[in-house]
Design goal:
mainly alpha; 80% helix; elongated
């Protein structure tokens, strides 16, 4: 199960980081928010949604593959193909809501904390550089 876990984590991390920056940038570009808590919250929750959309298929295949009986699937790819053939594409999004809530909340905590720490560190640096 190591390879499916690494794949899933790489996909989730890339989706979170990229979409957070893109959403935040667009919210600021279109003057929908200023660079403050509401902007960070909306950007983080949006990043959680995008990450869930991208990662859910990998999560479902990984979970089924790891919980399968011996010789039920030859590989994660075999698991994926059998899922599509038997249940259709919607099978990849089973459990979407709980996954989204978990990733959405995680992203809000992570990115809001990151932005607050970044702002605090910038303020400390500005105080140190101040001639007064």
């Amino acid at each position: 199960g190591t390879f499916p876990n690494i794949t899933r984590n790489a996909i989730v991390n890339c989706a979170e980081m990229v979409t957070y920056d893109v959403i935040k940038e667009k919210l600021l570009d279109y003057h929908l928010f200023t660079d403050n808590f509401p902007c960070h919250f909306v950007s983080a929750f949006g990043a959680g949604f995008c990450a869930t959309v991208v990662a859910s298929p990998v999560d479902v295949v990984k979970t089924r593959y790891m919980n399968s009986l011996p010789d039920q699937y030859r590989s994660p790819l075999d698991c994926m193909l059998k899922m599509v053939a038997r249940e259709g594409p919607s099978a990849f999004y089973k459990g979407f809501t709980p996954s989204f809530l978990r990733l959405g909340i995680w992203n809000v905590v992570m990115f809001v904390t990151y932005e607050q720490l970044k702002r605090a560190l910038m303020n400390v640096q500005m105080l140190r550089e101040s001639p007064f």
